[in-house]
């Protein structure tokens, strides 16, 4: 009698990768950026609009703080899993300074970048089957982190006609008895939209009324334009604070994406539970990076202001040029460093001998024909759009959008 291999090896009937991990999609933004860099390394004149990171170097005074930290033997050892006490203190002071939110060090967990803060927040709050209201367009990591934590993302879509901002009526229509958390991001990645003070308060009061948790991502708080400011929800609705987790980090504001320092702020019991998780997952964030973050948060914001001025200039150029393209509609973003144009008017018509029917197909045509890398709206839950980062040089920005104009045609002919 012959035996099949699966009978000899019971594990052969099982997948090599768990269903939980196998179901996670690759980060679309990182994939686009990696492909653009690979093509550029081959000598192709690629212009990449995909990366969600400033093109500036980390300010010198922050780098120097890291150099000094490298020389201190104390930083060659393990440190508390929840973060260096001096960094927690800096986060407490920075949060009070920038948003008016009064917190204690025991409410802070320092994480390995903002992504770890996102995952740990959901892992700490969600039980299997709990629903999370997820305004779309959304950052690609949010739904994957929710699913990995056992939750169910429930998308609430806002299009360009409402500046990509969901209303409380839309949220209420999506709420069910299984809804536990609202994810809130302002300024938004990928759209750059910013909720005004009244909108933040109305949504916060609605969440508080129904006993929902709010996970609010404030990592772009300093990158706003046209006199707009990003308001922190637990400040606008103080009674919500006991069921609110605030996410932030140094990556975007201080051009420190590679340093991997983020944090979460929340009720003490939630932060303690998340710290326990981190103690087993990664232990502490690299001490040298934490020391650099202390310098970033305790110095003045003049370097941030200079970067914001450049982003603002590029923002105006990009939106103006995109809106000249036939079939493209691009609202003016008020925050972050992204434009999120609708390209629905381009789809279904010939482009360089091809007829893209989706924004994903259009992004492929754009890369193949004019060597410009953009991220399609499918990555953010809303097909029919493209995300373009304006965190690149003025020259590359103008050249890249000019290539799109030549490929797609302008409304003026």
Describe the structure.
Helices cover 40% and strands 12% of the residues. The strands form three sheets. Strands 2-8-7-6-5-3-4 form a seven-stranded mixed sheet, sandwiched between helices. Strands 9-12-11 form a three-stranded antiparallel sheet. The protein contains 15 helices and twelve strands. The N and C termini lie far apart (76 Å). The protein is α/β, with parallel strands linked by helices. Strand 6, helix 10 and strand 7 form a beta-alpha-beta unit. The chain has two domains: 151 residues, Aspartate Aminotransferase, domain 1 (Alpha-Beta Complex), CATH 3.90.1150.10; 239 residues, Type I PLP-dependent aspartate aminotransferase-like (Major domain) (Aspartate Aminotransferase, domain 2, 3-Layer(aba) Sandwich).
CATH structural class of the largest domain: Alpha Beta
Structural class: alpha/beta
Widest sheet, order of strands: 2-8-7-6-5-3-4
Low-confidence stretches: none
| CATH homologous superfamily placement of the largest domain | Type I PLP-dependent aspartate aminotransferase-like (Major domain)
* Overall domain count: 2
The count of helical stretches stands at: 15
Major sheet characteristics: 7 strands, mixed
β-sheet strand percentage: 5-15%
Through-space gap between termini: 76 Å
Outline type: globular
H-E order: HHHEHHEHEHEHEHEHEEHHHEHEEEH
Cα-atom Rg, whole angstroms?
A: 22 Å
User: Can you count the beta strands?
Assistant: 12
